[in-house]
Design a protein that fits this description.
Oligomer: single chain
Order of helices and strands: HHHHHH
Radius of gyration: 16 Å
Strand content: under 5%
Number of domains: 1
Number of strands: 0
Shape: globular
Helix content: over 70%
């Protein structure tokens, strides 16, 4: 594995990905239990969830660096931008690519299931940025856990179940 690949992999924050995976798997299992399973839709929902989690992590890298919250002397897992291992420009480019992938996959899900999925997806993208970005970053105002519960709990499970059922 090249060092650059390892830096990008670390920036995805693999330990956070189960937060995106588990709700989709649980909802897919619940839908399957009542005979409403579509592996392609489940896979697309899982893809969107994981990509949104990675997008959130990349946006967090950018925003925390810009706000001075992440520095090279940060305690804990290194942040790739703060450590000088990935540039803000490269990470911003990756964010654009992730948005494009999510919008493409999400458009297919919306075409299949309608406005409810559009609303959930749109709000998920908005709050992925608002987690540490924007004029009132949720993580800096004690609201991050509430939105994690809402989006990785209620929205992800119910949205996936709605998509399948």
């Amino acid at each position: 594995m090249s060092p650059a690949f390892g830096h990008w992999l670390a920036a995805t924050r693999p330990k956070t990905l189960p937060a995106a995976i588990v709700p989709v798997v649980v909802a897919s299992a619940a839908a399957a239990r009542v005979g409403r399973v579509d592996l392609l839709l489940s896979a697309a929902a899982l893809g969107c969830a994981v990509l949104i989690q990675i997008l959130t992590n990349f946006l967090n890298e950018i925003e925390d660096f810009r706000r001075g919250a992440d520095t090279p002397s940060r305690v804990g897992p290194p942040r790739m931008i703060a450590a000088g291992l990935i540039s803000v420009k490269a990470m911003t480019g990756a964010v654009v690519i992730l948005y494009a992938l999510i919008l493409g996959l999400g458009a297919w899900l919306v075409a299949h299931s309608g406005i409810v999925i559009l609303v959930i997806g749109g709000l998920s993208l908005l709050f992925s940025w608002a987690y540490t970005g924007g004029p009132y970053p949720l993580a800096y105002h004690g609201l991050a856990d509430v939105f994690v519960l809402l989006f990785f709990g209620l929205a992800a499970i119910n949205g996936t179940y709605f998509l399948l059922a």
